[in-house]
Amino acid sequence: MRTRVLVSAYPYLLARAGLAALHFRRRGGPGGVFADFGRSIGARLLIRGYGIGVELLLQPVESLRYFEFPFALSCCPDAPQRCLDVSSPRLFSLYVAHQYPGTAVRMINPDEGDIATTATIARTLRIGNLQCDVSGVDAVAAGRARYDCIWSISVVEHIAGAYEDREAVRWMYDALAEGGRLILTVPVDRTFREEYRDTRYYGTQPAVDGRYFFQRLYDRAGIWERIVGPIGREPAVVTWFGERTPGHFAAYERRWMRRDFFATVDDPRDIADHYTTFPSWESMPGQGVCGLMFEKRSGE
Asked: What CA–CA distances, in Å, run from 275 to 51, 76, 155, 240?
C-alpha cells in the first residue's frame, strides 16, 4: 500500500521536495552537499530499477541529519586510512567512501536488512572501498582492528539490553588508533528521559511491560555522565543544534508518523526555518542534537 500511494503521488511530492530544496538553498541551510549527493545517487538507483531511488529523490537527508552529517564531516581527519561507521544512517558513509576513494570505510549494523541494502547500493554505484558487515558494536570490543576515525550518528541513544550506551562509547574509543577521532551525535532535550514504543523499530531493543525501548533523550548532565564519563576524556569539540521554538520537533514527529513522505518532503524548508546552532545546552529552548568529537592521545 505504501509503495502504491508513493508512486501515485510521486509527481506532487517531487514538486514539493524541489520547492523545499530551493527554499533551503536560499536560506543557506546546513548540509546541502549531502542532499545533493543523496538526490544524485537516488536518480542513478532509480534508473537501475531500485525503488529506494524514489525515497532518496524525495527525502535525501532526514530532518536533523542536515546538521549531523556536516558536523561529522568537519570532525573527520584530513586523510584517514581506516574508518569505522557504527550503524549510522548510510548516506554519510556512502558520501565519505565516494569522495575519498583512498579511505577504507567499514560499516557495521546488527540489522541484516539495512546493511544488505547499503551493500547493494555500494555495489550498484561501484563504491569499492566500503565494507558492510552484520555486527553489533560489541564486535568492536572483541576485535583487534584500530581506526583513524569512528563515527556513530544518532545511534548510541538506541543501544540497550545486554549492554548500553556507556559500554558502547568506551568500546569505540578504545578501538581508535593513536590520534584517532571518535564522532558521536545524540538527541537532547531539557531533561533526560527514556522513550518506549509499541513497535520494535530496530529489532534489537528489549521489551518492558509489553513496550519496547526506543531511545534516550539526553540533557547535558546525562551526556557527561553516560558518554563523556565512560570515555574518560573531555570532548575536543561540542556543538548544539536544535529547534528555535519548544515543541516544534515533537509536532514534526507526529506529522511524520501519520503522513510519512507527505510530511518529510518539506524537511529542508523545516530545517532552514525552524532550527539553528546554539552556543550551549543551556541556551537551547527545546529538543535538538549534540555533536561530540573525542581525540585519542598518545599513551592511551
From this structure: 31, 24, 21, 11
0.90 exceeded by pTM: yes
Closest CA to 109 of 150, 137, 145: 137
Of 159, 171, 103, nearest to 131 by C-alpha is 103
List the helix and strand counts (H, then E) for the chain: 14, 11
DSSP state of 225: I
Residues forming beta bridges with residue 212, ordered by sequence position = 197, 207
CA-wise closest residue to 35 among 56, 49, 54: 56
Burial class (CB in 10 A: 0-12, 13-18, 19+), 203: exposed
Q: Domains (ranges, CATH) in the chain?
A: 62-295 (3.40.50.150)
Contact 107, 130 (CB under 8 A): yes
C-alpha span between 106 and 83 (Å, rounded): 6
Report the chain's C-alpha Rg in angstroms. 19
CA dist 111 → 88, 118, 140, 170, 207 (Å) = 11, 11, 16, 22, 17
Strand ranges in 139-259 using DSSP code E only, listed in sequence order: 147-153, 176-188, 193-197, 207-208, 211-217, 237-243
Residue type, 91: L
| DSSP H or E segment with residue 117 | helix 112-124
Cell numbers 565512560 correspond to 230
Beta strand 147-153 with 130-134 is unpaired
Model pLDDT for residues 168-217, shown as the tens digit of each residue: 999 999 999 999 999 999 999 999 999 998 777 666 666 777 788 899 99
- Taking alpha carbons only, the member of 172, 298, 281 closest to residue 290 is 281
Residue pLDDT, tens place only, 98-143: 999 999 999 999 999 999 999 999 999 999 999 999 999 999 998 8
Question: Terminal CA-to-CA distance of the chain, rounded, Å?
Answer: 53
